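TA notes, week 10

Several of you asked for a full example with nothing omitted. So below is the full record: structure tokens for the whole chain, then the designed sequence directly under it. When grading your own attempts, check the secondary structure regions first.
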């Protein structure tokens, strides 16, 4: 049965009786009604020429307090929404308007209504079990989250990930440091060097990448040695760089990265730390293979 929570990529043809029985496809979403073209008629013989109208989702208002689960339905009038925001949450924290630009389109014609909802809403309210079974619609349950992965057959896992998605990513400084430390602990040796400050450089390397920095023999032709580059435009912040030191792999017949570094600039200090990581990893690789490093290696 229709539950008033349309979500996802939906497209239905419903009869006039279904339209009436569902309260004109009643929505629980807060939405704004918009008109369509003036040419459409409810007496049209096909839905494409029917009377078109739209329902634009207004999103939800959420509390800024991460420990508060309150969400509020926004008013349709913009002035009343402003009053909601200035009033704040019952817990004393501020409210923020989480907008959603999804639009449902309905065509009324002589045989009923054609309904289309294309983009997934940004304010899902379905519980874990509903997400596993599939959100109900006019023609039965929709897609299940278990289609993504079998792990989502577990309601507790669905509940956990659902909460994380609704709250959004924690981008605070504390979370970054904690996440960085956890990543380093879970992937020992992957982070070669980390310098955080005015000059920030984070260098990473896999075991295979390190093995490519020291060759058993000198390669002939223009592939011997190392190629260094710094890519602009890789990160959102245009002044940040992705520095790469690569060597040629004769087995793969291509150039492979030996060290990758995030840098927040291109000063001599940034390059100094990147190449410090390069030389340290060369030294470690040579030592692990009982190779004595000499000037000839450079």
């Amino acid at each position: 049965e229709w539950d008033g929570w349309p979500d996802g990529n939906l497209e239905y043809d419903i009869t006039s009786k279904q339209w009436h029985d569902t309260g004109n496809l009643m929505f629980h979403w807060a939405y704004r009604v918009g008109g369509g073209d003036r040419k459409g008629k409810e007496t049209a013989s096909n839905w494409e020429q029917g009377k078109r109208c739209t329902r634009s989702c207004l999103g939800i208002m959420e509390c800024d307090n991460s420990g508060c689960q309150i969400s509020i339905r926004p008013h349709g009038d913009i002035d009343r929404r402003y009053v909601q925001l200035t009033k704040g949450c019952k817990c004393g924290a501020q409210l923020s308007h989480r907008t959603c630009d999804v639009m449902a389109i309905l065509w009324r014609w002589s045989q009923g209504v054609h309904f289309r909802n294309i983009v997934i809403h940004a304010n899902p309210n379905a519980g874990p079990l509903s997400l596993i079974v599939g959100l109900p619609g006019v023609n039965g349950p929709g897609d299940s989250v278990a289609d993504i992965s079998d792990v989502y057959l577990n309601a507790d896992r669905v509940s956990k990930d659902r909460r994380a998605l609704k709250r959004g990513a924690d981008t605070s400084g504390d979370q970054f440091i904690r996440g960085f430390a956890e990543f380093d602990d879970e992937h020992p040796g992957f982070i070669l060097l980390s310098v955080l400050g005015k000059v920030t450089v984070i260098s990473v390397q896999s075991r295979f990448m390190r093995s490519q920095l020291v060759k058993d023999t000198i390669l002939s032709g223009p592939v011997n040695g190392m190629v260094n580059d710094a890519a602009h435009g890789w990160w959102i912040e245009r002044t940040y760089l992705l520095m790469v030191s690569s060597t040629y792999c004769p087995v793969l017949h291509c150039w492979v990265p030996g060290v990758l570094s995030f840098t927040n600039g291109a000063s001599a200090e940034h390059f100094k730390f990147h190449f410090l990581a390069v030389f340290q990893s060369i030294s470690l690789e040579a030592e692990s293979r009982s190779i004595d490093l000499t000037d000839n290696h450079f």
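Residues 268-288 form the longest helix (21 residues). Use that as a sanity check on your answer.
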